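I am still getting used to backbone structure tokens and would like to learn alongside you. To get us started, please write out a protein record for me. Once you have written the record down, we can walk along the chain together.
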Amino acid sequence: MLRFLLNLLWFVLGGFVMGLGWWLAGLIAAITIVGLPWARACFEIGNFSFWPFGQEAISRRELTGRDDIGTGPFGLIGNVIWFLVAGWWLAIGHLSSALACFISIIGIPFGIQHVKLALIALTPIGMTVVPMHRL
């Protein structure tokens, strides 16, 4: 019940806007065709940005114990391209939202979540979102 309440407050107080930002980046990436690998990551992290409590974003290497195309050298190249094209502005959006949340004591957990999402925004390729109980 607490997770639902936190997610609902998060969604109303800023999660909706940042989730739409992720989806917009994913839509733009998908339209270019070349950006389809980034679009997949955008939509997955966008859904996570809408409802973050009770879930965790982790590396697929950490989850499966082996490398795949997104966690190896191609993933590194993809993350560098992502950072230069779109990652920095999504990270700035999350950091500015975090600063707004840190103004009040009640907003501190939301600010911490925005900081986590800002770090994910810098390098989303190779990440996956899993429920907390699977960790």
